[in-house]
Amino acid sequence: MTDSPSFASLPPGALPVQATLREALAAMTQAGLPALEARMLLTHVTGLSRTQLITRDTQPLDAGQHGRLLTLLNRRLAGEPMAYLVGEREFYGRPFRVSPAVLIPRPDTEIAVQAALARLAGTQAPRVLDLGTGSGILAVTLACERPDAQVWATDISPAALDMARANAAALGADNIRFLESDWYAALPTEARFALIVSNPPYIAAGDPHLSSGDLRFEPVDALTDHGDGLSDLATIVAGAGAHLEEGGWLLMEHGFDQGGAARQLLRDAGFADVFTERDLGGNERCSGGRWPGGKAGVQGPTAGSEP
Ligand SMILES: C[S@@+](CC[C@H](N)C(=O)[O-])C[C@H]1O[C@@H](n2cnc3c(N)ncnc32)[C@H](O)[C@@H]1O
Q1: Do 134 and 198 reside in the same domain of the chain?
Q2: Is the CB of 228 under 6 A from ligand 1?
Q3: Segments forming the whole domain that contains residue 38
Q4: How do residues 143-193 score in pLDDT, each as one tens digit?
Q5: Taking residues 25-45, what's their average pLDDT?
Q6: What is the CATH number of the domain that holds 40?
Q7: Using CA positions, which residue lies closest to atom 24 of ligand 1?
Q8: CA distance 305 to 275
Q9: Residue 133: CB within 6 Å of ligand 1?
Q10: End-to-end CA distance of the chain, in Å?
Q11: Contacts of 261 (CB under 8 A, 6+ apart)
Q12: Is 301 within the bounds of a domain?
């Protein structure tokens, strides 16, 4: 959750038509934009590289570039996230297209990728399900990291699925099936997976974070379950057994204070080897467990943490 940036407003005439790149950069930083963001907006509207911004800094903006830059600058000054303005955010070393139809990828979600890859190590052609794929970061990253996997990705939002499909195509992930579905509802009843991963909405209704910072601009149905924050996690746990291979894993991202509740849900549903991974800030961030039975080729890492 990032706090809303606080910017000065752009003084009238601060960014004149035909301003040079150097003058435009100065006007944006004087308005309070960090230099990195100012350069990102300039490279976005001009198509120049960061090096070219320096070597051609006396070049004037053309009328189209000036208009687009002014619009983006004013949207940024109003607090809109950079990722939506430039239409892209990096995740696990790959560029993902984003729009206000999808959640902006968070670095914390890379914990779920690492946990998933560790549990898929040693498997061959594993079947993987990403529930609530959004921009597709989990499904596409796992499909790229494990090209032998057969990945399914679901979302209830057709617009999110369109974005996920576009990202899969752009990143060459051709081993993914996309499905519009309310969690497991549209999956074939016989579909079984070695691993189910999800980053579901887990912010409780009425949480003040929903009306501050970047979250004001993100799709509300991607952020909150409109309940206590645990209802989608509970639905995902309750339905997982019917779609996991024996010995398969369920992994879920959750809020920093939801680790205990997530582990309880998993244990109550009959999961074994329940664990929680912490994010880089030391917060409990991703919990999971193994569906019992069988000797499926899905092995867990030996050093798991089970608080
Ligand atoms: C927190 S976002 C995560 C998006 C993406 N996986 C990521 O990590 O950036 C949750 C996603 O779940 C989807 N979602 C919400 N309710 C759903 C439901 N009932 N069934 C399937 N997907 C749902 C939302 O549309 C959203 O894309």
Answers
A1: yes
A2: no
A3: 1-79
A4: 999 999 999 999 999 999 999 999 999 999 999 999 999 999 999 999 999
A5: 95
A6: 1.10.8
A7: 222
A8: 5
A9: yes
A10: 25
A11: 230, 233, 254
A12: no
